[in-house]
Amino acid sequence: MVEAKTGSKRKLIDYRKEVPTVYNSEKVPGNVWEFPRVRYRMDEYEKHPTQKPIVLLARIIKASSNENDLILDPFSGTFTTCFVAQKLNRK
Questions:
Q1: Nearest to residue 63, comparing CAs of 84, 38, 36?
Q2: Domain that includes residue 27, residue range
Q3: pLDDT of residue 7
Q4: Euclidean distance between the first and final Cα of the chain, in Å?
Q5: Segment 14-33, tens digit of pLDDT
Q6: Quick one: pLDDT at residue 26?
Q7: Burial group, residue 88, by CB count within 10 angstroms (0-12, 13-18, 19+)
Q8: Which of 1, 28, 50, 58 is most buried, most CB within 10 Å of its CB?
């Protein structure tokens, strides 16, 4: 599940339901994922031509593994995958 970019951000109320409630703040991710690319002024920048954003790798790892699973990244480059895997309790 990912954060919904609908009325949930502004805490809008859905009055169409019997009991009015705040819009759901999570949804199933769609087919298009939008993330800013890593640029030289960002804190995570490591001078690597194909470095991936931390948020992208976190989403991929969360979607494809459980805690304490083993993550394989044979072409590690900047070791961003290893960094994210450790933060998410993966090995």
A1: 84
A2: 1-32
A3: 56
A4: 22
A5: 788 888 888 777 778 778 88
A6: 79
A7: middle
A8: 58
